[in-house]
Design a protein that fits this description.
Blueprint (H helix, E strand, L loop, with lengths): L2 H33 L4 H27 L5 H48 L1
Helix pairs in contact: 1-2, 1-3
């Protein structure tokens, strides 16, 4: 296999890895939102910041690895990485965390109710 083909394959894999990394960052944002509910303005601001971060990271990948040349397969690789992570990992992890958060909130409410009853 030629050096050019190897480099292009490596660049595609780096693009997929970038997509996975961006999805992990967004999952961290989702987890933060589970524990600290926000109003619509804060959600929009966080999503805007994430969008800018995603654009900068994707641009950095293209700039550093491909001298700024836009390659469709690189953008496709980022999207593929995000989709694969979302379907294989993210949904399961977030479902489990949502159950845990609901359980934790239930325990906290129960504890608060008990402490209110003791004060009376």
């Amino acid at each position: 296999m030629s050096v050019t083909i190897r480099y292009e394959a490596w660049l595609f894999l780096m693009s997929v890895g970038t997509g996975v990394g961006l999805s992990i960052v967004y999952d961290c944002l989702r987890i933060f939102r589970l524990f600290c509910p926000h109003n619509a303005w804060a959600l929009g601001t966080e999503d805007l910041i994430y969008g800018i971060y995603s654009a900068v990271m994707t641009f950095a990948l293209l700039y550093e690895q491909n001298d700024g040349n836009l390659r469709g397969y690189c953008i496709g690789g980022v999207i593929l990485g995000m989709a694969v992570y979302e379907n294989l990992v993210s949904r399961r992890v977030l479902k489990c965390l949502q159950k845990r958060v609901e359980w934790l909130k239930m325990k906290i409410r129960r504890h608060q109710n008990r402490s209110k009853q003791v004060r009376r």
